[in-house]
Design a protein that fits this description.
Layout: H1 2-10, H2 14-22, H3 24-40, E1 50-54, H4 63-71, E2 77-81, E3 92-96, H5 104-107, H6 109-117, E4 122-125, H7 129-138, E5 143-147, E6 158-162, E7 187-190, E8 196-203, E9 209-213, E10 230-233, H8 242-252, E11 256-260, H9 261-267, E12 274-283, H10 288-291
Parallel strand pairs: 1-5, 1-6, 2-4, 2-5, 6-7, 9-10, 9-11, 11-12
Antiparallel strand pairs: 3-4, 8-12
Length: 293
């Protein structure tokens, strides 16, 4: 099912294109509602620099490593995100810039990545980003990064949008677009290769590795994969059970499970043989990102 949805949104077959066209009236209505919402919102200035990094489409785009790279340039940044997939609600300070205060069930996988990779960064999860921003200001953050905050039009900020290549240009449900780049909204569009490149670090590699991952659009990993004996994909933000991973190891006869950092933060305490495919981002010196920061 995951693979079918990925193809439908990003590389549709003829049958999927037909389905997309049939659903186009709903897509037009959805897009119209989102535009009216944008035009009716009053923007609020929080008196602190705010940068949002995200994409206009559903699915992954590499925003987490880009946010990590940007936030690492500052002495006391704060990252605020909703925390998709977490087993908690409300506002939680995951890291105060000195210590990690919550576990991955409270934080969600992406927030824990930030907390572990950026030990001096304040990390906050909150469905209401405005409350998260106020909390970051109370904690004396110098700048706020919103993970996937394009749609928060009520917040005055710089929007960095990672462009995703797709031949399906419809809004939901016909295509992958959650919103459009609305006229009058200042947006900095960036793309992989032009503005940033990925760096891959393979840690604790073994001879027979089984790729196991729960990220959006897992085929994005193919360009960076070492030799593996197989691939097992789970839904985005999935919480693994130790027993199912033990079974995968046994059935595949793998020496280790090859995982991304997003998977690693959820299973590192399972005491299983793990190999880590750590993807990081290097921002190009001539990128427009630096000219706008």
């Amino acid at each position: 099912m995951i693979a079918w949805i990925e193809r439908y949104f990003y590389a549709p077959t003829l049958l999927q294109k037909l389905l997309s066209w049939l659903l186009s009236p709903l897509s037009f209505l959805y897009c119209l509602i989102m535009k009216i919402r944008f035009m009716s919102i009053k923007v609020h200035d929080f008196s602190i620099p705010i940068i949002s990094v995200g994409n206009l489409t559903v699915g992954g785009s590499g925003k987490t490593p880009l946010v990590t790279a940007l936030a690492s340039k500052y002495k006391k940044p704060a990252i605020i995100l909703r925390g998709y997939g977490r087993k908690s609600k409300g506002l939680h300070v995951i890291s105060d810039g000195k210590n990690i205060l919550k576990d991955v069930l409270i934080s969600g996988d992406e927030a824990m990545i930030y907390a572990e990779k950026l030990p001096e960064c304040i990390v906050i999860v909150s469905e209401k980003r405005e409350e998260g921003i106020q909390k970051a200001k109370e904690m004396l953050a110098e700048i706020v990064f919103l993970d996937d905050g394009y749609s928060k039009h009520q917040i005055q900020k710089l929007d960095i949008v990672i462009d995703v290549v797709t031949s399906n240009n419809f809004c939901l449900p016909s295509g992958p677009y959650r919103e459009r780049h609305w006229k009058g909204k200042k947006v900095l569009h960036v793309s992989e290769g032009k503005d940033f490149t990925r760096e891959v670090k393979l840690k604790d590699a073994t001879e027979k590795m089984l790729l196991v991952t729960a990220i959006a659009r897992p085929e994005r990993l193919d360009a960076f994969l070492p030799k593996v004996i197989g691939k097992k994909y789970f839904p985005d933000h999935y919480y693994f059970q130790k027993e199912e991973l033990e079974k995968l190891l046994h059935v595949s006869k793998a020496d280790s499970l090859l995982v991304t950092y997003k998977d690693y933060v959820k299973i590192k305490d399972f005491n299983l043989p793990l190999s880590l495919l750590d993807l990081e981002v290097q921002i190009n010196n001539n990128s427009a990102i630096y000219k706008n920061n």
